[in-house]
Amino acid sequence: MALVKMPAGGKVAESEKITINLGHVDLGQVDLLVAERFYSNRTDFIRTAIRNQLDRHADAVRKAVDVHRLELGLRHYGRTDLEAAQAAGQKLHIQVLGLAVIDADVSPDLARDTIASIRVLGALQASHAVKAALSGRIL
């Protein structure tokens, strides 16, 4: 299975949109820093704050990745990868911190037959049918 591989004919999204709620005073302070040109916009401020916190906790993240045996980054699963696991009689326990992509050419039956469990801290890209087939196995 390839660690970094683009899906056939498609792009992997580089980011995931999230929504947060901030108190009025906090939001006002962010807007003030943007107005004073410390940051180009609210998003720039929020990304910088998140990166600073991730840097601050980098050792804890590394230890947790090791303890939980998570694969870090982009993990790609295609039909041929799952068919090879099926032929070898293997059941996959997918654990990813980042992005897990299950190709569109993977059928729900093949996913159900080869993926015993899936835990993604980040984002999972798969067809709705595959996600439905794995719904009881997504942790």
Number of helices: 6
Global structural class: alpha/beta
Topology pattern, helix = H, strand = E: HHHEHEHEH
User: What is the beta-strand fraction?
Assistant: 15-25%
What's the total count of β strands? 3
Helix share bin: 40-55%
User: What is the average per-residue confidence, as pLDDT, rounded to a whole number?
Assistant: 90
Strand order of the largest sheet: 1-2-3
Largest pleated sheet: 3 strands, parallel
Give the number of domains: 2
Distance between the termini: 21 Å
Shape estimate:
elongated
Task: Please characterize this protein's 3D structure.
- There is one protein chain.
- By secondary structure, the protein is an alpha/beta fold.
- The chain folds into two domains: 36 residues, no CATH class; 81 residues, no CATH class.
- It contains six helices and three strands.
- Strands 1-2-3 form a three-stranded parallel β-sheet, with helices on one face.
- α4 packs across α5.
- The longest helix is centred in the middle third of the chain and has 15 residues.
